[in-house]
Amino acid sequence: MVMVPQRRPDWLKVRAPGGENYEALKKLMRSKQLHTVCEEARCPNMGECWAHSTATFMILGSVCTRSCGFCAVATGRPQALDWEEPRRVAEAVTQMGLRHVVVTSVNRDEMQDGGAGLFAATIRWIRRLNPETSIEVLTPDFKGNQDALRVVIEARPNIFNHNVETISRLYKRVRPQAIYTRSLQVLTWAKEMRADMPVKSGFMLGLGETRDEVIQLLSDLHDHHVDIVTIGQYLRPSFDHLPIERYVTPEEFAEYAAIGKAMGIPHVQAGPLVRSSYHAWDQAKIVAPESVAQ
């Protein structure tokens, strides 16, 4: 295993969070007892996004039932579902004046539907209070429960996202409770349930994958009808998480984007700081402008 110096290259340096909008949004989230993946996953783009009054809401609590080697979200025994959470998310969307909102969650494998019902309730509440806002969901795999997935899709999100996160060979180390083929199946099911809905997925580089494996992953995503792919650099949240095998250069990211587009994937956004929810509205607008708020 190659040990990478802890000092980040210049292309990965970002400003520390701050500013008036950042502080106002932080206060809003606390007042409504809401969680954002921005904070829980220690996203490097949090300062930029929050300064522009955008955020990705994380529902179903802040404790995950899985223990992925790359993720900073807490693992353990989750609390009971809060069925008032969907309304509070919708109210926050109103106060923020969002045109496009992303809703994700922790995994809730202890539940039969994996929390799909609360996802659907959140979509309905956002629509009720914010009829002009387009909605993107970034869901777990629901342990391959097709009926649970259908509950989410029938609530009619504008965009469906489920991240594969890494190449097949690394799943046991990076996502020990997930299955590569199951994640691909979820993406195909989502497209089959609603052919007009853009389907999206994303993955990280820097965990030990080879160039051929990345190209195979892009091919698999194309074959499973994915419309939007995001590719970013893995950044180690702490010394308790998986080490960074290497920092991938911006030029390599650009090459993978070009390869994915040449395969026929409608939109590939790749770069060191790209995350699945980063500039999400812009991605959706490119692929399906009729599906998102203008």
Kindly describe this structure:
- This protein is an alpha/beta fold and 294 residues long.
- The protein has a single domain (29-291), classed as TIM Barrel (Alpha-Beta Barrel), CATH 3.20.20.
- It is built from eleven helices and ten strands.
- The chain has helices at residues 20-31, 37-40, 46-51, 85-96, 116-129, 146-154, 171-174, 180-193, 211-223, 250-263, 280-287; strands at 35-36, 56-59, 63-64, 74-75, 100-105, 134-138, 159-161, 199-205, 228-233, 267-270.
- The protein has an eight-stranded mixed sheet, sandwiched between helices. It has a two-stranded parallel sheet with strand order 3-4.
- Helix 6 links the parallel strand 6 and strand 7 (159-161).
- The chain is globular and about 45 Å long.
- The mean pLDDT is 86.
